[in-house]
Amino acid sequence: MDLTVITYVVYLVVSIGLTVWVARTLSSNGRIFLADVMKGDEKLAGAVNHLLVVGFYLVNFGFVALYLNRDETVTSTRGVFEALSTKLGVVLLVLGVLHLGNVWVLGRIRRRGRMEREQVPPVDPQAWAPPAAPAGA
To answer: What transmembrane ranges does the database entry give (predicted)?
Structure first.
C-alpha cells in the first residue's frame, strides 16, 4: 500500500478518535456548567449541550476532511511521521481553540446571568417594607 494512503488512514483514525473523545468529555463535564448558566433548567441545559456537541462535530469533522489533502506524496517512514505530526498538530490546535472559545462565551453568559440575579431587589419595586426596629428597643 502507498505510504500516502497509510498517512491518510492514520490521520483520519486519530483525528476522528480525538474529536469524539474531546466532544464526549466536553459534553459530560459541560452539562453541569450549562445547568448553572441556564439557571437550573436541566432540559434547556441538555438541549444546548446537545446542540453544542453537534456543532463541535460538524466543525471539526469538516476541518479534518478539508485538511486531509496533501499536495506531495509520502515516500518514506519519516515522511509519514512528519505529515502526521503537522496534520494532527493543527487538528489539536483547532480543537483547543474551539474549546476555549466555547468556555469563554459560556463564561460571559454565566457572569451576565449571575449579575442579573444579584441585582434583584429584596422587595418588589412597588411594595412597602416597614422600617426596622431600633437595636436598643
So the answer is: 6-23, 44-68, 88-107
- State in Å, rounded, how far the first CA of the chain is from the last one: 94
Q: Rounded CA gap, 100 and 92, in Å?
A: 12
Cell 463564561 belongs to 107
Alpha helices in 38-76 (DSSP H): 42-66
Give the pTM: 0.69
- Residue (of 62, 79, 64) closest to 2 by Cα position: 79
Distance CA 66, CA 53 (A): 20
DSSP at 121: -
Q: What is the pLDDT of residues 78-111, one digit of tens each?
A: 888 888 888 889 888 988 888 888 778 777 877 8
Place of cell 462535530: 57
- Cell of residue 61, nine digits: 469533522
Using alpha carbons, select from 31, 26, 29 the residue that is nearest to residue 43. 31
Instruction: Determine the Cα–Cα distance for residues 42 and 36; give it in Å rounded to an integer.
Output: 9
For residue 72, what is the DSSP state?
S
Whole-number pLDDT of residue 13 = 93
Q: How many residues does the chain have?
A: 137
